[in-house]
Structures are given as C-alpha cells and as structure tokens.
C-alpha cells in the first residue's frame, strides 16, 4: 500500500470520526442555532430604515442596529426554548446547547434595549420580547394560563402585529402625525403576516403534529393562497395611494419592488405537493427575508444613477 493511499484513508477516517462525534454534532447544532436568526435580524434592521424613509424622518443607524439586536434576541430565544413542532420543522437544531442560545439572546437584548433606552424607546424593546415569550412558552398563574400559540392564524397575527408595531414605533417616534405611522404599521404588519404564513407552508408536518392551527393546515393551500393575494393587493393599494397623495415619502421603487416580490413569493412558495430543493429554499430565503436588503440596495443604485 502506497503512503498516499494510507494517508488518504487515514484522513477520511479522521473526518468521519469528527463529523459523527457527539461533541462535534452538538457544537455544529449550537452554531446553527446562533446563526439561524442573523438574516432575520439584518432584514429587520433594514425594514426599520425603510420605515424611516417612508415616514420622511431622519434614519438613525443606532436605532436600526438596536432594533436588529432585539429582533435577533427574540427569534434566538424562541428557537433556544424550542417547541413540539420544532422536532420536525427544525431538525438541524436538535442537540444544540440551548443555554448558550439563551445567554446570547439575553446579551443581545440587553445591548439593544440599552441603546433604545437612551433614545426613550425602552418600552418598544420589551414589546416583542414579552410577546415572543408569551407565544413560545406562555405564563401560568394558578389555574390561569396565557399562551398565544395554537389558535387559527394566531401565530401570523402575533408576528404581524408585534413587528409592525415595533418597526413603525421605532421609526415613527419623532413623527408629528399618527396617520403615516398607522399606514407604515399596516404595511409592515400585513407583509410580515404574509411572510410568516408563507413559511407555514413548509412547516405543515410539524404544525399538524403539534396541533397548531395555521392557515395552510386549516384552510388548505389554495384558500390560504387566495387570501394572501387579497391582503397583498389591498396593502399595496393603500400604500400607493398614500404615496401619490404625499402622506408618505415618495418611494415608488420600494412599493413596486415589494409588490412584485410579494406576488412571486405567494405564487411560488405556497405549494405543498413538491419537496423543496436546496436551491428553492435559498431562493425563498433571499426573496422573503432578503427583500429589504434588495430594496435598500436597488434604491442606493438608483439614487446614484439619478445623482
């Protein structure tokens, strides 16, 4: 046996031992847990920036970053605490060290809330954190139990209401009129409601197992898809009218890109018959969670050409 063959086999043996060792699997799952909310947080920070643009107020980088940290902490805490449906929906996080996820979540929340507190927005930092905990675990006082998870469309409603209020509240804190803030809240609330429902289509197995009555599980794919199309068209019609009448900042690229991207996502990612390929998963992630990144990038390019 030549030395090359021997060392080649020895290298494969070490790689096999490393990839299948329990401590490596745990470390890998923990890393995935910590990375799983980064894109959502980054996207959320850019959504806050977009809200500033629509409200025609000065965008604060610190506010956007702090908002992103709070978003990261809430989603990481939810995944660290885990739930019954996650056994099926998030198999890749199985075996992760939850205490590390909780510790990182608390640290990012403290940093984000400290920045927001200096701007007089501490209450908004606690809003998604408290609602997120009530959704994931709930609280029990004697015979009374409050848990937001389980009802028909409750998860989607909670996501839309919470993050819509969070984003519009941070960006609209210096706004003199409530009407633009309400319109931005409606826009982002509906968009995040739709996005969370789109993700429910790939989580049907786990949600059914856990008895969670999501819209795709209860209404079926076709009815849910039609409902999302209706919401999407209505929210962008309202936003377009507001832009034309000067109630919001004139940002036609934001509205147009959001409208087209939303139509593509609802059409392509509300199908349950086929197994999603890795490319489709990446494409959906870019179009859904990466939408705000694309909007901000395209707007910067367009402004550069116009200038």
UniProtKB/TrEMBL annotation:
A Gene Ontology term for the protein's cellular component: plasma membrane
UniProt-listed InterPro entries: UbiA_prenyltransferase (IPR000537)
Gene3D superfamilies, per the entry: UbiA prenyltransferase (1.20.120.1780)
Top-rank taxon, per record: Archaea
GO MF assignments: transferase activity, transferring alkyl or aryl (other than methyl) groups
Main location group: membrane
Localization per Swiss-Prot or TrEMBL: Cell membrane
Topology class, membrane: Multi-pass membrane protein
Keyword annotations from UniProtKB, A to Z: Membrane, Transferase, Transmembrane, Transmembrane helix
Residues that span the membrane, as ranges: 60-78, 99-116, 122-140, 152-171, 177-194, 227-248
CDD domains: PT_UbiA_5
Name of this protein: UbiA prenyltransferase family protein
């Amino acid at each position: 046996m030549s030395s090359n063959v021997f060392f080649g086999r020895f290298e494969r043996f070490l790689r096999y031992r490393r990839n299948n060792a329990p401590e490596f699997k745990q470390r890998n799952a923990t890393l995935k847990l910590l990375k799983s909310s980064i894109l959502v947080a980054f996207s959320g920070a850019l959504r806050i920036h977009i809200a500033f643009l629509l409200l025609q107020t000065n965008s604060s980088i610190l506010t956007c970053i702090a908002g992103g940290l709070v978003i990261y902490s809430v989603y990481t805490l939810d995944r660290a605490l885990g739930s019954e449906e996650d056994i099926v929906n998030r198999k890749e996080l199985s075996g992760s060290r939850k205490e590390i996820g909780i510790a990182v979540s608390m640290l990012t929340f403290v940093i984000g809330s400290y920045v927001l507190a200096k701007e007089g927005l501490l209450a908004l930092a606690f809003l998604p954190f408290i609602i997120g905990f009530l959704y994931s675990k709930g609280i029990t006082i004697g015979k009374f139990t409050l848990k937001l998870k389980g009802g028909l469309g409750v998860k989607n409603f909670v996501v839309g209401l919470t993050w819509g209020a969070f984003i519009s509240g941070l960006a609209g804190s210096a706004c003199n009129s409530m009407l633009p803030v309400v319109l931005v809240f409606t826009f982002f609330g509906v968009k995040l409601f739709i996005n969370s429902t789109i993700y429910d289509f790939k989580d049907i197995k786990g949600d059914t197992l856990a008895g969670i009555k999501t819209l795709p599980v209860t209404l079926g794919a076709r009815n849910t898809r039609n409902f999302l199309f209706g919401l999407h068209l209505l929210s962008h019609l309202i936003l377009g009218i507001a832009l034309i009448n000067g109630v919001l900042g004139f940002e036609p690229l934001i509205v147009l890109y959001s409208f087209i991207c939303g139509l593509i996502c609802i059409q392509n990612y509300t199908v349950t018959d086929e197994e999603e390929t890795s490319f489709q998963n990446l494409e959906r992630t870019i179009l859904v969670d990466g939408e705000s990144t694309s909007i901000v990038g395209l707007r910067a390019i367009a402004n550069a050409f116009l200038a």
